[in-house]
Task: structure prediction
Amino acid sequence: MTNTKRKSKIILIILLAVILTLCGISVWYVNDYYHAVDVDEALTSSDTVTVSSTDTGMLFNGPGTKDALIFYPGAKVEAAAYAPLLKLIAENGIDCFLVKMPCNLAFFGMNKADDFVADYSYEHWYLAGHSLGGAMAASYAGKHLNDLDGLILLASYSTSDLTKAVFPVISIYGSNDGVLNMDKVVTSRDLMPADYSEHVIEGGNHAGFGSYGAQKGDHDASISHDEQWRETVSICTSVLKK
Result:
């Protein structure tokens, strides 16, 4: 074997090794996510809310008929973890669509809202998201200023210019959040429309908007998940239905 062929073979082996390593890391990363816990009841239909599957997620169909909210989950969080929160919102008259994101990353499904808007008829559409899901929801909203009636950011912020939005933008986060970058929240205020409100849930934390256990880097909450969910619902419904 000539030196040239030997070098080519070594280079090929190195490239294959790099590719296999990257593939292995990718598979590990995609499968290393926060799993939903204690959500069986929230995923079961009740007297007031019917829970069903859709092509790209789940529908929480409550007593309301005119308003619908599309929800983008946080990064590497199983979508079902947000079922308790969305079922409560649906009970209060706003039907909710929970989006199951590719690889549990909203970055790969920013335009998923299009699927629901195309397939269902509601008078008012709201978009919401947690953490990375909120950032992606804001990016979507920035490109659909005339198609939405409200945006809810849970422990999140926008990097898109929403100053021309005619709909309300609601920012909600817990006082004990150890993950949210508050500097970016402050900076993003300059990107918000006139109808912008910020709400702090005392004792709430980052992971408290869902039900997936403790999140790395987060602080302990001093209130229960249920308290954080109910205060979130109270804020959202009071602003969106005023």
